Amino acid sequence: MPRYCFCLQVKPDRMAEYARRHRAVWPEMRQALHDTGWRNYSLFLREDGLLIGYVEADDLDAAQAAMAKTEVNARWQAEMAEFFTGLDGGPPDEGFQLLHEVFHLEPPTVAEGQ
Fold this sequence. Notes:
Layout: E1 3-10, H1 15-22, H2 27-35, E2 39-45, E3 50-56, H3 60-68, H4 71-80, E4 84-85, H5 92-95, E5 97-99, H6 110-113
Antiparallel strand pairs: 1-3, 1-4, 1-5, 2-3
InterPro entries: Dimeric_a/b-barrel (IPR011008), Rham/fucose_mutarotase (IPR008000)
Protein name: L-rhamnose mutarotase
C-alpha cells in the first residue's frame, strides 16, 4: 500500500490544545477516515510545532476527495484551522506539504534471512 508523509506548522502557543483535541478525535471523524481509505494514520508533533503526518492509502487524492464530501470533515477542518500557520485561509487537510520518500526498509525475505 502506498505510504504518504506530510508536514504542517502548528502555532507554538496552540500545541497543547492541538494535542489535547487529538486525544479525543470524534468517533464519527475516525469512522469517516476509515471509510474513505485512510489507513495506519499517525501524527507527530515536534517541540517547535512542526507536525508530521503519516498515512497509508491506495490513492491519497481519492481519500482526500472522499473526506472532503463528508460533513464531519468540514466541521473538523473548520475547528482545526485556527491551530496552523501558512494555510492562507484554506483547510488544513488541503494545506499540507507532501514529503518525498527517499528510503524505506522492507522486511527481509526468507532467502535474505538465511
